[in-house]
Design a protein that fits this description.
Elements: H1 10-27, H2 32-40, E1 44-48, H3 51-65, E2 70-74, H4 75-80, E3 90-94, H5 103-114, E4 118-123, E5 133-134, H6 146-161, H7 169-172, H8 175-184, E6 198-202, H9 205-221, E7 225-229, H10 230-237, E8 246-251, H11 258-268, E9 272-277, H12 288-306, H13 321-325
Parallel strand pairs: 1-2, 1-3, 3-4, 4-5, 6-7, 6-8, 8-9
């Protein structure tokens, strides 16, 4: 299967930019006020939507490595069905574009500021959110990639400042090269577009990457795709899969062998099965950065094969300002 041309689309160029951007952010100073807000927090809530929610889920796992109480919540869930957030808590608000395009991210900002809760925004460079940790320039493709992986790196750095020793400087320094290796050799050559449904599954942090990879394939290539935790897939969701579908299993981890066992069962049911393994010598949650890069390239390859534009995702009736403004507090940050 031919190599994917990363230079022909904004999505490809953003994927290719990730090693350099990750290396830059390893050296970028972490705001002292941000670190202190998190040190003093009783609990930490990570809030985001879509890709940003996936970052929030992995960020919570990183903060658990520091022994901190952390929970990921979707933006709408946080605003409309808020958990019990107290004045001693802190909120990490993750938004690609400073809350300007996601109504419920803006509503989250307004709600927590009005409540006097400590808030730490992680967003694009050049945004106007006070005390924000900034990632990269606004992405030119609507299929977000580099703004996701750089958020993950910054969350790992925050976890390290709070005591997650596994995310020390030496370990983080290996991440950009692992991503560079994933771009050079994605390991996805045998993953052909299925006639019906693409299903991606993994365990623990790789389950989050499965959902993010499926989202990229849906956005960039308009390919029906779903991402699952492997146990959740086993409990009924795998039943309708057949020869017209493809199952992609992600490792590591596979602590009890369930990922491998589900793959073998799928093969017995004549489902097409592919396996993507991340070889980087990194803690499992950090290994998701190069692992998701492989799936980003898969999404781009599918888009090029289908002749669709991976950079313009929200079109037609979905590109309606009134639709996207629902839930907005009226004044966005």
């Amino acid at each position: 299967m031919p190599d994917v041309d990363l230079s022909s689309t904004a999505l490809g160029r953003q994927i290719a930019s990730q090693p350099d951007e990750l290396a830059r952010l390893i050296e970028h100073p972490m705001p002292h006020v941000t670190v202190e807000r998190l040190r003093q927090a009783h609990r930490i809530w990570l809030v985001g939507t879509g890709t940003s929610q996936h970052a929030a889920e992995l960020g919570a796992q990183m903060l658990h490595e520091a022994g901190r109480g952390a929970q990921a919540v979707g933006s709408m869930q946080f605003v409309k069905w808020a958990p019990p957030v107290g004045p001693r808590d802190a909120v990490i608000l993750i938004s690609h574009n400073a809350g300007t395009e996601t109504a419920y991210a803006g509503a989250t900002w307004t709600m927590v500021m009005d409540a006097g809760v400590k808030v730490i925004p992680i967003t694009k460079r050049g945004g106007d959110m006070p005390d924000a940790i900034q990632t990269v320039e606004r992405e030119t493709s609507q299929t977000y990639t580099v703004s996701y992986t750089t958020v993950l790196l910054l969350l790992a750095r925050l976890a390290a400042t709070l005591g997650a020793d596994r995310f020390d400087d030496e370990t983080l320094a290996r991440v950009p090269e692992a991503v560079r290796a994933a771009i050079a050799t994605p390991g996805i050559d045998d993953i052909a577009r299925p006639a019906r449904l693409l299903v991606i599954a993994g365990e623990g942090p790789s389950a989050v990457t499965a959902r993010e990879g499926a989202l990229k394939c849906r956005e960039a290539a308009r390919v029906p795709a779903e991402g699952y935790d492997v146990e959740y897939l086993l409990h009924g969701n795998a039943v309708p899969l057949g020869p017209d579908d493809r199952l992609v299993m992600l490792t590591p981890p596979d602590t009890d062998g369930l990922v491998a066992a589900v793959a073998r069962a799928a093969e017995r049911e004549r489902v097409q099965v592919s396996r993507v393994h991340e070889p980087a010598d990194l803690p499992r949650v950090l290994a998701q950065i190069p692992l998701v890069t492989r799936l980003q390239i898969l999404a781009l390859r599918f888009a090029l094969e289908r002749g669709v534009d991976p950079d313009k995702v929200i079109v037609g009736a979905w590109d309606d300002e009134a639709l996207w403004a629902i839930g907005s507090p009226g004044g966005r940050p």
